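Q: Here's a chain of 315 amino acids. Please give me its 3D structure as C-alpha cells.
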Amino acid sequence: MKKFVGFAKRNLKDYLPILALIFVIVLFAILSNGQTLNTNNIKQIMLQSCTYIVAGLGIIFTMSLGNMDMSLDGIVCLSAFLGLQATEQFGPWAMFGMIIVAAIMCELVIGGINILLGINSVIVSFAVSFFGKGVAGYIIGNRSTGLSVPSVFNGLYSKTLFYAIAIVSIIVLSVVFHYTKLGKRTMAIGSNPTAAKAAGINVTKFKLLAYLVAGIMMGIATTMIVLRSGAIGATTGAGFHITMLLMMVIGGASLTGGTKEKIYSVVVGVLLFLCLENGLTVLGADPNVIGLIEGIIFLASVTLTFDRDGVPYIL
C-alpha cells in the first residue's frame, strides 16, 4: 500500500504541470467567454511559444547538470548584435553563422570557467550576461545607424518556418536527451557528479557537450528573435533569462538537475506561462498583478520540484 501511495505521489507530481495547463486553458476560456480560444489568439500563443521552446530545449541540458544559466538575455543581445554586424562586413548570409557561433562561445565560456575554476555557474552566467549586454549596448548606442535584418531575409519570417523549427527541435532533442549517452550521462552528473566520475563518466567532456547543445539552441532561438523583430537595439533580449527560468520551473524542471528532468517540461512550461499571461491580459488584469501571480506560481513550483538532497551538487 505504501509503495502504491509513493508511486501515485510521484506520478501526480510529474503530471501536475500538464494538469495545470489544462486547468488554466479551461478556466480562462470560461472567464473570458471563449475569447482566449479565439483562433487568432491561439495562433499568437503558438507562434510566440516557438522561440522559447527552442531555447528551453537547449537550457534543459545545462539544468540537468544542476547548473542555472542566467546569461540568456546577454547571449541574445550580444549574438544578435554580432550577427547583424557581420552582415555589414561579410554579407547577409554571415548573420546566421555568426549568431550561432557567438551563442555557442558564450555558453562554452560559462561551462569552461565553471569546470576549470570551479566558480558557481550562476555567478559566471551573470557575468556573461552583463558582459554581453554591456558590450552590445555600448556599441549600438554609439552607432549612427541602426542594425536591421538584411532585406533579403524579409520573407523568412513565417509561422510555418517557426512551427517547423520548433517541432523538429522537440523531436531531435527528445531523442538526444532521453535516449543517447549525452542526455543520460548529463543527468547522471546532475544527480551526483562524484558518483558519475567514479562510474567512469568523463564529467568534463559531457558538461562541455551539454553547454554546446545549449549554445546551438540559443543561437537558433536568437536567430528567430532577430527574424521576427527585424532589428535589434540595446534592450534586445531583456528579461529573457527570467522568463525562460520561470517557464522551465513551472513546467516541472528541477533546479537541482538530475534524472528528474524531462523534455516535456519545456513545452508544457512555455505553454502554461503564455496561456496564463495571455488569459490575465485578455481579462484586463493589471501588469503588476500578473507579475505577482507569476511570482507566486514560481515559488510554488520551486517548492514542489526542488530536491533538497541534491543541493550540495549545485555548481
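Q: Can you summarize the key feature?
A: DSSP finds twelve helices and two strands in the chain.
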